[in-house]
Amino acid sequence: MKNFVGFMVLVSALALPRFAAAEGGCPSGFIPNAAGTPNVQCIPAGGQGGSGSGGTYVNWERRWGAFTSDAQTGKIGVATAMSSKRKAEKEALRDCQSRGGAQCKVLLAFTNQCAAIAWGKEVAGSTAVSAVSGVNAGVAKSSALQECGKRAGSCEIFLTECSYAEQVQ
Questions:
Q1: Complete edge-to-edge strand list for the sheet that includes strand 49-51
Q2: How far is 6 from 82, CA to CA, in rounded Å?
Q3: Is residue 86 part of a domain?
Q4: Bridge partners, 78 (sequence order)
Q5: Which residues contact 18 (CB under 8 A, 6 or more apart)?
Q6: How many whole angstroms separate alpha carbon 122 and alpha carbon 164?
Q7: Mean pLDDT of 21-37
Q8: How many distinct structural domains can be found in the chain?
Q9: Which end of the chain is more exposed for a tag (fewer CB within 10 A), N or C?
Q10: Phi, psi of 110 (to 5 degrees)
């Protein structure tokens, strides 16, 4: 009888579906949100809430990031893990200005994902800058290089940051 129960437990465990640790390029514990078009957003696996340890309610809040730049001085501003798009953009503008930027403008705001900035020299001598988001750092870097490469012969990654949803109670 013991062997039969053990066998049934083993069969049940093997029959249950398993989730990939990095489904769709998202970090462990997150899954792609199809509604996050045009760029995929990573959301917590299992939805917006649930039971955490000790039976307490767990909620996930989205986190925003932003990149800003001053085209004249080349100064960049960054913000991550902010609770709103507005706060992320405002903090990135403040960061850009604190680094010496006088005419800082928002390049990109992103939520629950990563973003990268790539740059390179165009044929005419000006600088090509591309800021692109993606489900993880690798996707963001690849997309930024591809976008920059449309205008410049050779590009390189300047910066990569991520802002994923945070668990709150």
A1: 49-51, 57-61, 166-168
A2: 49
A3: yes
A4: 67
A5: none
A6: 33
A7: 58
A8: 1
A9: N
A10: -140, 150
Q: Per-residue confidence at 20, pLDDT binned at 50, 70, 90?
A: very low
Paired tokens of 18: 């398993």
Q: What is the pLDDT of residue 44?
A: 66
Q: What is the pLDDT of residues 110-123, one digit of tens each?
A: 999 999 999 999 98
Asked if omega into 17 is within 30° of 0 (cis), the reply is no
pLDDT computed for residue 38 by the predictor: 52
In a domain, 153, yes or no: yes
Query: 117 CB contacts (<8 Å, ≥6 apart)?
Result: 67, 76, 107, 129, 130, 131, 144, 157, 158, 159, 160
Give how far Cα 147 sits from Cα of 13, 33, 78, 103, 164, Å: 45, 23, 20, 24, 23
Per-residue pLDDT for 143 more than 80?
yes
Structural domain including 148 reads 64-168
pLDDT band for position 168 (cuts 50, 70, 90): confident
Residue 47 belongs to a domain: no
Q: Rounded to two decimals, what is the model's pTM?
A: 0.69
Within-domain flag for 42: no
